[in-house]
Amino acid sequence: MDCNEPITKFEQWGLPLEEINRLGQHLRCFYDRFCAYIRPKTQDTSEYGYCYVSGLLRMEAKRTMANISRKTNVPIQNMQHFMSNSPWSARSLIGAIQDEIQQHPEFRAGAMLILDESAEEKAGDHSAGAGRQYNGRLGKVEMSQVGVFLSLATPRAHTWIDGELYLPEHWFGDGYAERRKKVGIPEERSFQTKPELGWQMIQRVQANQIPFEAVVMDDLYGRNNMLRQRLDQAGIEYYGDIPANTVVYLDKPRVIYPKTRRGKRSKRPRIVAKRRYEARQLLHHPVLEWFTIILRPSERGMLTAQFARCRVWTLHGTQSRQEWLLIRREGQQITYVLSNASVDTSLKTMAWRKSHRYFVERDNQDGKSELGWDEFQAIKYLAWEHQLALTILASWFIADTRLDWMARYERDPALLEQYEVDVLPMLSVANVRELLRAAMPLPQLSTQEATTLVVEHLVNRTRSRRSRLRQQRVPQT
């Protein structure tokens, strides 16, 4: 066997070994582009940020502050202060990341902005924003902490670009004043619904001049009349999923105030229309014409679905507005969507744009399984903000690395013929992390170091038991 054969195979897949061996240096250079935004005015602790991001990217599990500290040789108290109390601005870092994304050729045209949320189960309500609320992953109301996120996606790249912690309304009651102060909720924060948080982030993205063609969102946001109206007034094209029982009209409805028996105008409006429909009632209506559309390559072949659309009227209070009702049918799964796309937008374009919601779901899953989002443990609001900014930074490192390699190292076209496929899979987040761990291995503990950690753990557990015993003692009279 030719000794060069393994290298040839690597290069066939666009993976030159010399580039992989430099991944650690690449991470260092990448981080240095942003470290100025992670440097407080009083003391330069930005190196802790590098250690934290490298821990998120290289560790396989248990990515808590304490474990990241141990693996990267940072004193635990220093790392906890850096994440929970240090005054560096997470918003400034996220803005700098957005600035770099905005300048990248990949996102100059064809990008989609995707709005979604993600909930993490919590053991108690001590963490900022934690409370009994709907957890989509569990499919029920549970003690959770919920974040609202924005992803930016093209067919070749996708990444988180912003997020906000949702604070349930009861967190702003008088009974929570002390708790808000304890976890560091900013005084200027007031209750905002999830759609309001989403609109706030979309405005920030616009202010940073990140180009995108449309906003895609699930039914929590798509059914919100105010959010859709704000997007429309701002000239932003949207695709919002809606519940199947959403009321629509094929003819423009009129809102009137009928006279009462006394001859006065009623305060209660009445809707006059030929017929009102629930969106699902139009599924088999003659007004619809169905087409099968190929959307994109997937791991299971080409992703295809059936689509149909028609113009409908919806009511926003007493104001009526015309929108598209777009319906996607894939097997037994049917999705109803409202959109303000122009009347000359093709069905194929609408179908393609609407189907980008997959990418934010992929980003949410990668954030949890690959970047440790669901392992994060902290009480303070500032810690959540810092975790968000550093996770977005890690996510952008993965996306930037993949795009860089695709641009500089072409894959061998013969692979398509060899494997009898029409497209080759792109590197996953897990793939890049695997290569980074090889190029930048985590230090292995000596027997003495491991034993020291175990003793520290035993001491902490013993102190915790002592504290509980003291609390349980009954005062003697």
Provide the helix percentage: 40-55%
Ends apart, CA distance between termini: 87 Å
**What is the global morphology?**
globular
Q: Which spans have pLDDT < 50 for at least 5 consecutive residues?
A: 1-7
Brief rundown of the structure:
With 477 residues, this protein is of the alpha+beta class. The protein is 40% helix and 21% strand. The protein has 17 helices and 14 strands.
Describe the structure in your own words.
A hairpin with a 4-residue loop joins β3 and β4. This protein is of the alpha+beta class and 477 residues long. The strands form three sheets. Strands 1, 2, 3, 4, 5, 6, 11, 12, 13 and 14 form a ten-stranded mixed beta sheet that branches. A two-stranded antiparallel ribbon has the order 7-10. It has a two-stranded antiparallel sheet with strand order 8-9. The longest helix has 28 residues. 40% of the residues lie in helices and 21% in strands. Among the domains are: 163 residues, no CATH class; 102 residues, no CATH class. The radius of gyration is 26 Å and the shape is globular. α4 crosses α5, α5 crosses α6 and α7 runs parallel beside α14. It contains 17 helices and 14 strands.
